[in-house]
Fold:
Amino acid sequence: MLAFLERKRLEREQQHSAHVKTKQLSSSSSAAPASTPILLQQALRPAAPSSKVSRTAAKRHPPARKSFDPLALLPAELILRILDLLPFASLVLCSGLTKAWRSFLRRHRDLWRHLPMIERRPGTLNNAAIKSLVSRAGSQLQSLHIRATGKSITSAGIRDCGIVAARHTQLTRLTVEAMSKLNREALTALLVPSLRSVSVPGTVVDDAAVATVLATCLRLEQLNLANCKLVTGSGFEPATASAVPYGDSPAGLACLDISGCISFTPQGIENLTRHPRIASTLTHLFAQHIQSLNNWCLLQLTDLGALHTLHLSHHPSFTSARLVQLFSTLRNLQSVSLPYCPAINDQVLQTLAQHSGPSLHSLAAEGSANISGLVWTQSLAQFTKLTNLQVAQCPGISTTTLETIPSTLSTLSVRGIDAITDRSLDALTLSAPNLHTLSVGQTRVTTGGLKRLMVLMPHLKVLDVSGCAHVSSAGLAELRAVAGRRGATRGGDELVVVFASFESGKSVRVTGF
Structure:
């Protein structure tokens, strides 16, 4: 298309230049000598042709200019390809430019198969807009994302959208977030058997709605119920699993997020381990910030043998013996998060390294004060595939520990550890040269050590030095100079330095690396 438009532009420029040259030649040939009197010059001037007179009159009353639509000249296949590459917001703007664009977008419903309707400002999204866009997509709709914080969207409007969406057999992803008015009736109107992912965080859905989702969406693989305060877990009871009306068996749930469900009970955890579509297939469980998740729940989680990702929050009843039993049963874990848990000691970390060391990719154990430096050093050497390590405020971490971390590490946080000095940064440049994100805030590092780190780590993108008492505003200027020199020698990649000194207390973003 670009070549076609460029060729048309060159043709118009050639025609314009030829017209200008012809006009200059005619004016020079009819011009009289300078010595000729003014009256004779006017007499020798040729009469204006009738076409010129008509053009002069046309300038006084110009006709309506016809708009030139280059899109209409392109093949339909090329137009479809161009519009398919546009984001959703640009696609909506294109539908209002010309009649040709509008009719083309209405004919090709597959261009509207992904509808991310996110309300940027209150009042910009309403029930009529949702219903119109969903009906425009028709049977080609594959994913629907509604996010609205205002009062312009009601449960009745969502139900009307669901009536239209009930005919959509290709809908696989449904996300409705930040809507306090989404109740069970409105959610039920949006459900179709083809859904594989349902995400309703922060809504008022209850256990009956959860049971309806599991009974209707026979291909469901991901369910996000984060911050749904009415969910207690009774919707996961095995008795609520209805019979499958089709010949093939339903898919098993692989990912479940119940973080922030403050009403979730220990009985709900037991229901997860007994549900036929969850017990043997669940691989990712996010259950942070649930106050009722006690030590007995850890025993129930041992029945989820397929778990790869386990994110929990500390409970006062957690014991080291129960954690050892959990990590001995759940082998080949890939991501573990249990911050600020006093029950994590040397034996727990050694058990995790023994059974999940070769497979673990992410470990978040901030505030683990009962792990010695020797066990940290021995265990980290067994995590051969570790890419994310969050050990902020862990007193057992030292320079010796950082010398043994795996070279695969890309994200590291050692914030709030007094033993981290410039020598620790030098050890990181040798043991983890591929770091992308590093947080050394509230440590004893200095400006000189940070300058060496920025030079010796070419892949570093984010460096957090907020709260470092030995890095002042003058040191920030030196870091900015180092970042500028690196930007000149390495192609202008960006490095972000988060800095907050005790003098100013301001966060500064340094770029230009």
About this structure: Residues 29-45, 242-247, 501-513 have pLDDT under 50 and may be disordered. The chain is about 40% helix and 10% strand. Residues 115 and 133 are 8 Å apart (CA to CA).
